[in-house]
Amino acid sequence: MAVMLLATITVHLFRGWISIMENEMADLSMDDREEEAMKSTMENVWHPIRGVQISDLRDKRFLFKFFYRMDLEPVINGAHWTFNNHLMMFHRLEKGEDPVK
């Protein structure tokens, strides 16, 4: 059974700041090269046994699909993950949860 992890690239960790920073966050962007570099870098850093499937959900949101729980735990329990000065905030999806909402 695959374990899914939703990652949203944002600039702040604190939830209270996210709504305040909405307009500023709209200006963040990743071009195609940065997106591919992020996918490659995260897979190389995490070294998942069976790999990780990364899908672009748009609006600076990516779905990371891990195939083994043991691959997911270091990501969830690890330090704050960043890429190219963007803080990556993770949310573990519950069964039946829509990753786009």
Automatic annotation (TrEMBL):
Pfam families membership: DUF4283
Signal peptide: 1-16
Keywords: Signal
Family annotation (InterPro entries): DUF4283
UniProt keyword Oxidoreductase present: no
Start and end residues of each DUF4283 domain: 36-99
Amino-acid biosynthesis in keyword set: no
Taxonomic superkingdom: Eukaryota
Official protein name in the record: DUF4283 domain-containing protein
Organism: Gossypium lobatum
